[in-house]
Amino acid sequence: MAEHECVQLVPIFSELGSEQLDTIESIVRHHHYPAGSTLFGADDPLDSLMIVANGQVKVYQLAANGREQLLYLLQTGDIDGEAALFKNQRRTSFGEALVTTDVCSIRRSDFQDLMQKYPSISINVLNVFGKRLSQLERQTTSTATESVEARLANYITETAAALKTDTFKLPLKKKDLATFLGTTPESISRKLALFERQGLITQKPGKVIEINDADQLLLTE
Amino acid sequence: MAEHECVQLVPIFSELGSEQLDTIESIVRHHHYPAGSTLFGADDPLDSLMIVANGQVKVYQLAANGREQLLYLLQTGDIDGEAALFKNQRRTSFGEALVTTDVCSIRRSDFQDLMQKYPSISINVLNVFGKRLSQLERQTTSTATESVEARLANYITETAAALKTDTFKLPLKKKDLATFLGTTPESISRKLALFERQGLITQKPGKVIEINDADQLLLTE
DNA sequence: TGAATTTCTTGACGGCCGTCAAGTTCTGAT
DNA sequence: ATCAGAACTTGACGGCCGTCAAGAAATTCA
């Protein structure tokens, strides 16, 4: 019904004209998932590019021992599915489940045609991937070498910096935050309580945190 | 002197013709570093694409606490420098040192021109990044959720699988392997000794390992 | 609004693994 | 071959943090 609803939300298509967006829209498949549902390598997602049309998507990966790791928190207009983009990728198979509301997808072969036709798309995707890559590099380094305390302190200051405010609401439940930071909900509770005892932050009802001493927070080891 | 020495080694240029390779070659800058030297965000590497012309390159990242993390082990023809590829990237600044022998580099703006002119390049780069991305996703999940024992067991079986042999020489010193797996040389020694005691592997002189029971190794938690 | 379920917090405990140290083996250069 | 330096191994110790459990707080839904 609506013309190029989700397609025009996506930055990677930003250079394209209206007729081209129409072409793409005709290729796109739309899905709706009730909030809280999880798609787990279902039907097509694994060999398609996913576009978040509405809501928030959490991308998890399953480890061999059954634990899950929160890798990305995607917002409207974000894309996912690097597996979609190259040919002889041995399926990462296990892993990569998501929880969401509205999602569009584009089949791998269709998307590859698009990239051939409109080179600006692949350059845009490169930018997205480059950023994601350096984010993951930092995350790997961080979980591999720093303490839970330091990782949490970093997360708080970075989130505050991104929102440009000292007082903000944690965008995740403790359990998700824990799997994101590679720790447990209990440890997060304890460390936040510690930071508060040290006067570095103040915790307020509703997962709201106020930073009192960002500099000292960053010195946490 | 030699025509397109390193350029023709690189898979991302594989679709290009000889004259085009010449063009690229004229843009490329060559460097030579004595084995074991480390370039540490020196002169241009941070805003250029790096091509490994010869030898082996270890890509490290420095954590806030001063520890280093081994992220990639690059071989001849591999590329590095995602930072090179997008404009408004706030420099990851600290981090990313490498050790190597021969390296070529292409300035960011030059490379962006190339991608505009030859779309096949950016698609090839996308493939490389996609693979690297899913590798890093697994690594993040692994270090965040699995024990040192399980990570090492995984590393051994994967390396063996990649080499298609049960007996192989560890390609890294214990210290590098340790920073790669997010642990310490001591722990690696201990775990290998444990595996040997359990009859899962046999250690031979010269960092050579023979796998006796791959299935059981994978069950390590 | 009130009750049921989920999420969060705090305590106690224990194990994994990082650190320090000392001895041994390996490696490479002369 | 010899020797110096690096890399490796093994032990002892301790702290970080994950686990289990129980109670408190918060959120959801009727």
Automatic annotation (TrEMBL), chains A, B:
Keywords: DNA-binding, Transcription, Transcription regulation. It comes from the Bacteria. SMART domains: cNMP, HTH_CRP. Residues 12-132 form the Cyclic nucleotide-binding domain. Gene3D superfamilies: Jelly Rolls (2.60.120.10), Winged helix-like DNA-binding domain superfamily/Winged helix DNA-binding domain (1.10.10.10). One of its GO terms (molecular function) is DNA binding. Residues 146-215 form the HTH crp-type domain. One of its GO terms (cellular component) is cytosol. Signal peptide: none annotated. Coiled coil: none annotated. PANTHER family: CRP FAMILY TRANSCRIPTIONAL REGULATORY PROTEIN (PTHR24567), LISTERIOLYSIN REGULATORY PROTEIN (PTHR24567:SF28). This is Transcription regulator. It comes from Liquorilactobacillus hordei DSM 19519.
